[in-house]
Specification:
With about 325 residues, this protein is an alpha+beta fold. It is about 30% helix and about 15% strand. The strands form 4 sheets. It has a 5-stranded antiparallel sheet with strand order 2-1-12-11-10, sandwiched between helices. The chain has a 3-stranded antiparallel sheet with strand order 3-7-4. The protein has a two-stranded antiparallel sheet with strand order 5-6.
């Protein structure tokens, strides 16, 4: 068994102040560097709230509207994109096919294409979607969690702002908030300092699973960050520093389907806004998002009515940060 395993970083904030940070395990099994509050983890789908904020900032700037369609933004996109709006993409009601499923279909027909060494990029995802003649369902008629939609949102940020997605996030979100170590990572274009590497356990041993064929996409999960920077993000959400609270409120309105009903997924009700799940924990109002990718598990849980925020970042896949965060929330409620 590993005596110095990969682990996790934990942040607890209350009333706008950090009350606990903890680092457990190592960021890299080769160097055995310990995890601390400055260790940067791949956020995976935790990143979606930043993509949503970027879109909201462009709407605030008057450069975009939530009702603008996919086909309008990308004129070469097939006709089914004429009914898909930015709002559908934000709320997972677009009906766009899952790009990992499309990758599998492509490789079954043409043989191996992508790997950890040859990763799919955002433009490739858009091309796969453009090869389809329709979505999984009419926009707004149903709900399915969609990494494809958030990849497309990242591309929309780049096109509408006329700058690469990582640059827009740096200029409009990370730099103003002094989130100096947070990056939307692009190999060869920027770096992740003090980086945690991802691992998975097999036969009692940890194996390097830091990268996969889908690790290069951006809008759905390509951001790296640490506890100190995420505390600044939490402050900004509390204060409305980036966006007026009245405009941010739109992100926290649970989506409804075309018929006015709340969505469901596998028979379970879903409450989702713009980049945030909004279902309560028991009777406690909550906004949250988790992230799962090769080698990493992450979560942020915010309880606005209690001014309580919990962040857990893991560089091993055998931990469940969502369960751990809910246990911490339970302790803090006692």
């Amino acid at each position: 068994m590993d005596t110095k395993p990969p682990g996790a970083a934990v942040l607890v904030r209350k009333n706008g102040h950090t009350v606990f940070t903890g680092g457990y395990g190592v960021a890299d099994l080769h160097t055995l560097k310990k995890i601390d509050a400055r260790t940067n983890f791949r956020l995976a789908s935790f990143s979606k709230q930043f993509t949503a904020m970027a879109i909201m900032l462009l709407v605030h700037d008057g450069k975009l509207t939530y009702d603008r369609t996919l086909a309008d933004i990308f004129p070469g996109f097939p006709a089914y994109g004429r009914a898909i709006t930015v709002r559908h993409l934000l709320t997972h009601t677009s009906g766009l096919a899952d790009y990992e499923m499309l990758m599998d279909q492509k490789e079954k027909a043409a043989g191996p294409i992508w790997s950890a060494a040859k990763q799919i990029h955002d433009e490739d995802v858009l091309a796969l979607l453009a090869e389809q003649s329709s979505g999984k369902f009419p926009p707004g008629a149903s709900w399915t969690y969609s990494n494809s939609g958030y990849v497309v949102l990242g591309l929309i940020v780049a096109k509408v702002s006329a700058m690469p997605y990582p640059d827009f996030l740096r200029r409009r979100i990370f730099a103003p908030l002094k989130m100096r170590q947070t990056v939307a990572y692009v190999e060869g274009r920027n770096t992740v300092r003090r980086r945690a590497f991802g691992y998975s356990k097999k036969d009692g041993q940890f194996q390097d699973t830091d990268q996969s064929a889908t690790s290069a996409t951006l809008g759905d999960g390509g951001i790296y960050s640490n506890l100190l920077d995420l505390a600044r993000w939490d402050d900004a959400l509390n204060s409305g520093k980036l966006l007026p609270k009245a405009e941010m409120a739109q992100a926290l309105e649970p989506v409804k389907l075309n018929d006015g009903s709340p969505p469901g997924d596998d028979g379970k009700p879903v409450s989702y806004g713009f980049g945030w799940f909004l279902d309560p924990l028991g009777s406690r109002a909550r906004m949250w998002h988790s992230g799962t990718t090769s080698g990493f598990r992450t979560v942020i849980q915010r309880f606005p009515g209690e001014a309580l925020t919990i962040v857990i970042l893991c560089n091993r896949t055998d931990l469940n940060p969502t369960e751990l965060a809910e246990k911490i929330a339970g302790i803090k409620a006692e």
